[in-house]
Amino acid sequence: MSEMEQSEVGQNETGRGIGTDEWVAQHEDRVGAPQTGMARVAQQWTRLPGLVRWGIPLVIFLSVPFIGSSDYILRIGVNLGLFVLLALGLNLVVGYSGLLDLGFVAFYGFGAYAYAMLSSEQFGIHLNSLLALGLVVATTAAFGFILGLPSRRLTGDYLAIATLFFGQMFAVFVVSSDEFQLPGMSDPVDITGGANGITQVDQISVLGFTFETNLSYYLLVVALVVFFTVATKRIHFSRHGLAWRSLGEDSVAAQHMTIPTVRLKLLAFTIGAGVAGLAGAIFASVQQGVYPSEFMLPLLITIYAALILGGLGSIPGILLGAFIMVVLPEVLRFPDYSNGIFLAVLVIAVIVMVKSWKVLVWAFGGMVVIGFLVNGILLALKVPYLAAQEWITGPLAPVLGVWVFMPENRVLFGNIAFVALVGLAAWMSIMSRRTRLIVLPFALWLAIWTWEVRLLLEPSVTRQLLIGALLIVLMAARPQGLLGKPRVEVL
Amino acid sequence: MTATALELRAVTKTFGGLVSLDALSLAVQEREVLSVIGPNGAGKTTFFNIITGVYQPDSGDVLLYGESITGQSPDRVARMGVARTFQNVRLFLNLTVRENITAAMYGRTKSNLLDTLFGTPRARRERRENEERVLDALSFFGTRLQGYRLDQPAYSLSYANRRRLEIARAMATGARVLLLDEPAAGMNPAETHEITEIIGRLRAERDYTIVVIEHDMHVVEGVSDRVIALDHGVKIAEGSFDSVATDPSVVEAYLGRGSAAKK
Amino acid sequence: MEYFLEQLVNGVIFGGVYALIALGYTLIYGVLQFLNLAHGEVYMMGAFFGFFTMTALGGPSMSILPVPLMILLMFVVAMGGSALLGIGIERFAYRPLRRSSRLAPLISALGVSLFLQSAALLLFSSKVRLYDSNLFLNMQSGISFFGVMIDIAEIMVVVGAIGLMVVLWFLVNRTNLGRAMRAVAVDQDAAVMNGIDVDRTVVWTFGIASALAGAAGVMSGLLLYPVDQYIGVFAGLKGFTAAVLGGIGSIPGAMLGGFLLGITEAMVTAYLNPTYSDFLAFFILVIVLLVRPRGLLGRPALVKV
């Protein structure tokens, strides 16, 4: 990384001036053609004109409605687009400015609820959509400003907790405000519909056109995503973008370099909140309802996971992370698909991390053998079990049905296996490389067994488990995420 | 008649029970190079921190071209024309060389977010001007920080280059007064010689007023018009390098009472 | 007046629980300058561990052991289990990140928090558990304190909390381990140079902090508060508020903050609106952080520029 300098201290007499750097001058000669296939592809990709690089994904997304006419897929697309908006908004606050806002999801909820209150029977108000949207964005942004005020004095850790608390407060307020006692009024007022939320929220209608179908919302969302992605890209290299990124790097040094850090932090909070509010309002109108459970901590952690998985501050990374975080759980809903995907991911991960094919044979071969061994042992112990057709269907059934021993008491066995798996995985993280490879077949078998026996039974819990584990592993192994650049930090 | 660029009037700063600066008064003329020396803990970096607004003085005043800047926030002070480098280099490590310098030009430009979003003429013009200023600031340091280096992250630079970049970044703010905190620390003799030349050229070619904190007496000797020695927050000597270097109280502060007696 | 005293007593009792959680935060922050966002989940697990110990022994109504022994065992298992859990979390989730960015450990802690909540949901199901301590403790017996009835469970909690605090104080101020903890808290590198095994000290710190949280979990169960996988969230946040109120990094501060928070919360619940009691902690936190970030007993942090 550090370059060697072959410079000369200039002597004014020779006229060469200070510091002629031979190393820099010879740079072009040193940098040859890229070697690996991946690098060549990457280089060709960057050579394409910007319009093409942006246009291709755009065309892909615009053609989704025409591939298989499933409304369900369009709905996922809308959710994905809204999620991307949230991620882009949060990126401004965390990715650029380094402000750990753990209450961000409250702005999303606030936008949704505010819109719902202005466009439903809750208070009998049905504001014109544009007006409602404008008001929602403005008020959410104002809330962002307010939440940002403490950031002047709070550093990273404290800001995190304060904002986390704020997010929790919002959730509590929303759930318990169906009987809000206003001073001076005799009856409590139902502000937020409590745990049941607000239903029958109006759809957005602009200039006579009402967004009624998922398709129309999908196109709206795609347009917004394009707008905000381009905006983020432009901001990245702009005066404000650099200012935010500098303050994220070293806030004190940034201040000394004319950057008004306080103002910029507030601006980041405000804009981030505004974007989240807009996404929330659209969400409320697509769903035609708002419910408190949708705006809680798990969603926040999912957004963070998306940002970090993709790579903080990297725009393609954000898009990729969002895609994985939204689409994967949807796929997990279908046990046949989720089975296949889990196994595929596991196999690919092992292949990528283990380079030698001999070890691969050991790993997978050993795994298969252990599976049958365990079957034998458990059969001999007369553990009651389920026949294949009782627990699995789909293309993998013949193989898995034979190889996986499915005990009747799935929950008990599965729980034990789960705890063992977590312990083993943790232990493996500190083993020496050799020991790790020796244990690998057993670990692989245990992982698949736990998945089939227990985790498949509860997809929503499994999803949270995976996200939590993902964050832990990512921070330790690859903090810059998939597409981010490795960062250097001074403590 | 040259103006007084920077002036401190009876500035006092205490931390808990420790007096860091004790009624310190000094004045720096425009285009002057003033060096501040003194043993560690003498209050030199605190002195910089008071000027740039990191700390508020307990009493006293700081004036920039006659205007009070006491207690202003660092970004305001920077925009008013005082820029600095830090004792432990504080670059924006994950930003490129170009970005480090461009970031510092915030105070000199006016484009807002709308300008950025819509690519207005103002945005484009300022981007061009910034690019020119980047090359201009870096040209001071030869070809070291040019070419492909412009787009390398700052953490990939060698130590000496990082110090140079920090100076270039301070120049980019458009300041008239530079505060350099140990610019030659950790440099080998060749690099030290070069820094001495650079400081001289900064004043000669760009009319900067420069205050330098330094321990390396070669640098101090080579650049200074005037030297001030601090010890325990008090000015113990002031004058030309020769007079201060041989001043008995200065020798005592650095080397102890016995050495002063021997001299 | 009697009502006031009753609320005061309630506040002190639950304040003791908050104090124990706060101590955990403060210990870890003091030694590592790291806010363990997953600490609340350790408390939650402790509550579960205690519950399962109780049911394993035949409780709540048909314990095979004499009740005091059963309760003791519940504490031992909960505290031991929590300690091991905390040590495991430190070893595998936080230690690899000790030299990386400021953000990474916090994100990892978020992940740990979510993981633990989901694991609890998976392993223990979403059923809400109750200790039903009234089935094995005679809630009618107790003492009368200036006219306020304090039942035996509450006595146990107060005595236990104070007892643990005394032990902690002794540990930190009178043992070598405590001295090592204080040294690492001040300057990690200097501690290493003085022959202190920082890793081991950190392990002990996490173990102790987590054990305290586990004890708090059992206590909260004994006080008949429900146990499910979400109780860690608010308990954690409130415990953190108490720690900050008292001054994060200060052990007496955590104790003071815990009791103050408990009492204030009891008063607000009783005299104002019960739903506001959760909000209260949040407001206290924000005000403390804005007005006096160092808390009541903390020392101001000096940052060298």
Secondary-structure blueprint:
The complex is a heterotrimer of chains A (491), B (263) and C (305).
Chain A: E1 7-8, E2 20-21, H1 22-25, H2 27-30, H3 37-47, H4 50-63, H5 71-96, H6 105-118, H7 129-148, H8 156-176, E3 198-199, E4 205-206, E5 209-210, H9 214-236, H10 239-249, H11 251-256, H12 261-287, E6 289-290, H13 297-310, H14 315-332, H15 335-353, H16 357-380, H17 397-403, H18 410-428, H19 433-453, H20 459-477
Antiparallel strand pairs in A: 1-2, 3-6, 4-5
Helix pairs in contact in A: 5-9, 5-10, 5-12, 5-13, 5-14, 6-7, 6-8, 6-12, 7-12, 10-12, 13-14, 13-20, 16-19, 18-19
Chain B: E1 4-15, E2 18-29, E3 33-37, H1 44-52, E4 59-64, E5 67-68, H2 74-80, E6 82-84, H3 97-103, H4 113-118, H5 121-139, H6 159-172, E7 177-181, H7 189-206, E8 209-213, H8 217-223, E9 226-231, E10 234-239, H9 241-246, H10 248-255, H11 257-262
Parallel strand pairs in B: 3-8, 3-9, 6-7, 7-8
Antiparallel strand pairs in B: 1-2, 1-4, 4-5, 9-10
Chain C: H1 2-32, H2 39-56, H3 67-94, H4 103-124, E1 142-145, E2 148-151, H5 152-174, H6 176-186, H7 188-193, H8 198-222, H9 231-246, H10 251-271, H11 276-291
Antiparallel strand pairs in C: 1-2
Helix pairs in contact in C: 1-5, 1-6, 1-8, 1-9, 1-10, 2-3, 2-4, 2-8, 2-9, 3-8, 5-6, 5-8, 6-8, 9-10, 9-11, 10-11
Describe this entry's structure for a reader:
The complex is a heterotrimer of chains A (491), B (263) and C (305). By secondary structure, chain A is mostly helical. Chain A has helices at residues 22-25, 27-30, 37-47, 50-63, 71-96, 105-118, 129-148, 156-176, 214-236, 239-249, 251-256, 261-287, 297-310, 315-332, 335-353, 357-380, 397-403, 410-428, 433-453, 459-477, and strands spanning 7-8, 20-21, 198-199, 205-206, 209-210, 289-290. In chain A, β4 (205-206) and β5 form a beta hairpin. Chain A starts with 6 loop residues before the first strand and ends in a 14-residue tail after the last helix. Residues 1-16 of chain A have low confidence and may be disordered. With 263 residues, chain B is of the alpha/beta class. In chain B, α3 packs parallel to α6. The N and C termini of chain B lie far apart (39 Å). The longest helix of chain B is centred in the middle third of the chain and has 19 residues, at 121-139. In chain B, the strands form 2 sheets. In chain B, strands 6-7-8-3-9-10 form a 6-stranded mixed β-sheet, with helices on both faces. Chain C is mainly alpha-helical and 305 residues long. Chain C has a single domain, classed as ABC transporter involved in vitamin B12 uptake, BtuC. Chain C contains 11 helices and 2 strands; from the N terminus they run ααααββααααααα. In chain C, α2 (39-56) packs across α9, α3 crosses α8 and α9 crosses α10. The longest helix of chain C is centred in the N-terminal third of the chain and has 31 residues, at 2-32. The chains are: A mainly alpha (491), B alpha/beta (263), C mainly alpha (305). The interface between B and C is small, with 5 and 2 residues.
